[in-house]
Amino acid sequence: MDNVVIRRLAALASVAILIVIVFATLAPIQQRPRLPMPVDVERGLAFAAMAFCISVALSRSYGLIAIGCIVLAGGLEWLQTLLATRHGQVHDFEVKALGGLLGVAMVVAMRRFFKKRAPNDVPG
């Protein structure tokens, strides 16, 4: 598959994941989707997946993506404090922010690994 196609698919996936994250974070608690895993794992994986996809789509902007994940996690937790059925917590912010950082770090590590193995095949 072409690198441009991969980046476009990653961009679309990141937007879809972001929409799910915002809904799950700000919807009334009874409407929040649940997966058969601890909520901290769920939160961390969602942010990691989003950050991974954004990092693939926007290669070389890793610092900005990491900062964006931290700001998004903080903003969503703050918005929860304004809702009657939700409550923002520092612990939830930490899990989400760390998940986002992990997603960015995975792409950075993968690019470095593949660049060492086949320098001519790595995009960007």
Observed structural traits:
single chain; elongated; mainly alpha
Please characterize this protein's 3D structure.
There is one protein chain. By secondary structure, the chain is mainly alpha-helical. It has one domain (3-121). The chain has helices spanning 3-26, 39-57, 62-80, 90-117. Helix 3 packs antiparallel against helix 4 (90-117).
The number of E-state strands comes to 0
Order of helices and strands: HHHH
Shape from CA axes? elongated
Describe the biggest sheet? none
- The residue-averaged pLDDT reads 89
Poorly predicted tracts of residues? none
Query: What count of helical segments does DSSP give?
Result: 4
Provide the β-strand percentage band.
under 5%
- Please, how many domains? 1
- Separation, N- and C-terminal Cα atoms: 15 Å
- Rg over CA atoms, rounded to whole Å, is 16 Å
Helix content: over 70%
Structural class: mainly alpha
SSE map:
Layout: H1 3-26, H2 39-57, H3 62-80, H4 90-117
Helix pairs in contact: 1-2, 2-3, 2-4, 3-4
Summarize the structure.
With 124 residues, this protein is mainly α. It has helices at 3-26, 39-57, 62-80, 90-117. The chain is 73% helix and 0% strand.
